[in-house]
């Protein structure tokens, strides 16, 4: 009887509890509107770990982390936990943190060769996705050294060499991988691509070498032609200046010295925006870029290829023929009204040139030096007020060059 009563009391208590439960919500329950957000805070169901784990806000995670990094466990267990941690970061594409985890795993120096191979291979993959090809290749090499038949390491090594354009090494990695797995499609494709690119690179290298040889021969022929004509070149960055010692020397000797000092490619580099330079045609004739200066109007003209056998009249007649330049307001620049001069860069003396003279004849003059690969000439209107004033300020060699 007593027992029956107690059971009834117990049942009555449960009824009361259930009635209360129906009318009062459980205090620890998930919020109906934010249940997914709260659910994601549970370590087992987290989709992504927080960047920083604070024991106050994530006590469960902090506890799990302390278990993972428990130094009292065997190195193999610690390394495996760190490998798994790195894999999770890798899945989230957080490659930097994955590298840190794999590196810490390798620092445990466990005796498990397979595990160390995987750590190196996975770290190589992380470096690869970050674009650190050298580091990725180093890890692939380390993994292969531990386990020569590890297919993933061999594939990764081949991929790194491809990215580094080391196609010969890529082929070697592919061959090693195909000895392990002859039918691996990825390795077969990598080998075919590496072989094609290696052949292309070798072909391009042969072409570049042939072009370099051709260019060198052309440069030597060009410099030989200039030297044979006795034309003197000045480097733009080191213009030749007469020193106190050289004043006692013969002018011809000074010109020869300048020729020898400037007889290289630096002396053939034009300062003009066109980038034109002297060249030797198939008939053995030199063509020079030539600059005409009009100081009265602060204007210039540029001829990209002045044939050395042409006279100045040939060009000036075309330049100042039927149509005069717009800046010549007074219409003075007719060919018959013009005087032509070149400047001796050592003495700053002007030398007058007859317009019928050929360019070659002028360039062979003792005091003519080609600066920056571009002969330049001053053009003045004969007898004009500007011409008289301009020449009065200069030392003029009145002996006309014919």
From TrEMBL:
SMART domains: TPR. This is Cns1/TTC4 wheel domain-containing protein. GO terms for cellular component: cytosol; nucleus. Pfam families: Wheel (PF18972). GO terms for molecular function: Hsp70 protein binding; Hsp90 protein binding. Residues 187-214 form a coiled coil. Residues 281-391 form the Cns1/TTC4 wheel domain. Residues 234-245 have a biased composition (Basic and acidic residues). InterPro entries: Csn1/TTC4_wheel, TPR-like_helical_dom_sf, TPR_rpt. It comes from Megalops atlanticus. Keywords: Coiled coil, Repeat, TPR repeat. Belongs to the TTC4 family. It comes from the Eukaryota. The keyword Repeat applies. Residues 234-254 are annotated as: Disordered. One of its GO terms (biological process) is protein folding. SUPFAM superfamilies: TPR-like. CDD domains: CTWD_Cns1 (cd21380).
């Amino acid at each position: 009887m007593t027992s029956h009563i107690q059971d009834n009391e117990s049942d009555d208590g449960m009824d009361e509890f259930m009635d209360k439960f129906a009318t009062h919500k459980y205090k620890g329950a998930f919020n109906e509107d934010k249940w997914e957000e709260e659910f994601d805070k549970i370590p087992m169901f987290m989709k992504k770990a927080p960047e920083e784990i604070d024991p106050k806000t994530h006590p469960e995670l902090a506890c799990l982390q302390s278990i993972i990094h428990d130094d009292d466990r065997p190195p193999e267990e610690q390394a495996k936990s760190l490998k798994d941690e790195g894999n999770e970061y890798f899945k989230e594409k957080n490659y930097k943190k994955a590298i840190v985890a794999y590196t810490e795993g390798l620092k445990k120096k466990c005796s498990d060769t397979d595990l160390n191979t995987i750590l190196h291979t996975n770290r190589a993959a992380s470096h690869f996705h970050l674009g650190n090809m050298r580091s990725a290749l180093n890890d692939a090499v380390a993994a292969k050294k531990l386990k020569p038949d590890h297919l993933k390491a061999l594939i990764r090594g081949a991929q790194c060499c491809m990215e580094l354009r080391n196609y010969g090494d890529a082929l070697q990695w592919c061959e090693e991988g195909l000895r392990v797995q002859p039918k691996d499609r990825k390795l077969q494709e990598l080998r075919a691509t590496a072989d094609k690119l290696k052949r292309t690179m070798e072909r391009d290298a042969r072409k570049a070498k042939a072009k370099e040889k051709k260019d060198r021969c052309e440069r030597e022929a060009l410099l030989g032609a200039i030297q044979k004509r006795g034309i003197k070149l000045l480097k733009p960055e080191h213009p030749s200046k007469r020193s106190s010692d050289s004043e006692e020397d013969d002018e011809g000797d000074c010109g020869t010295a300048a020729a020898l000092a400037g007889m290289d490619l630096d002396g053939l580099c034009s300062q003009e925006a066109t980038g034109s330079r002297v060249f030797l045609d198939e008939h053995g004739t030199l063509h020079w870029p030539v600059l005409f200066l009009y100081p009265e109007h602060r204007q210039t003209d540029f001829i990209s290829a002045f044939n050395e056998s042409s006279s100045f009249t040939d060009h000036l007649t075309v330049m100042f023929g039927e149509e005069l330049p717009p800046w010549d307001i007074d219409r003075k620049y007719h060919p018959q009204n013009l005087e032509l001069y070149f400047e001796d860069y050592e003495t700053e003396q002007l030398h007058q040139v007859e317009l019928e003279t050929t360019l070659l004849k002028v360039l062979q003059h003792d005091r003519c030096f080609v600066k920056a690969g571009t002969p330049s000439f001053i053009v003045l209107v004969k007898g004009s007020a500007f011409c008289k004033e301009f020449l009065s300020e200069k030392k003029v060699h009145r002996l006309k060059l014919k």
